[in-house]
Amino acid sequence: MNEEDLLSLMRRRVAVGLEREDTRKALEGWERTVLLTLKDGRKYHFLVKDGTIEIHEGGLDEYDMKIESDEDTVRKLFLEEMSAASALLKRKLKIKGSASDLMRIRKIF
Fold this sequence. Notes:
By secondary structure, this protein is of the alpha+beta class. The chain has helices at about 5-15, 20-25, 70-80, 85-90, 100-109, and strands at about 30-40, 45-50, 50-55, 65-70, 95. About 15% of the residues are buried.
């Protein structure tokens, strides 16, 4: 089975999410840079601006939020097979950012 690469999966699922009205509302007026670091060392970054989310390979020196996890957990989150709350409780996901950012990102994923 040829598994979709993680970057393609995240981009595809973000596009699906952006079709939801509650996601679009959560993004209104919100500009953030988010760093995602996987346990295997790979890094991705998200640019949230103007009601869209761009996902790129590679890290950032400066960011507003930092997310740490493993590929399996990230896949499950994007495929909606696991909630962020569940991943946090199981310590499969670490998020560093402001409380308001955490509340908003929950509505996006």
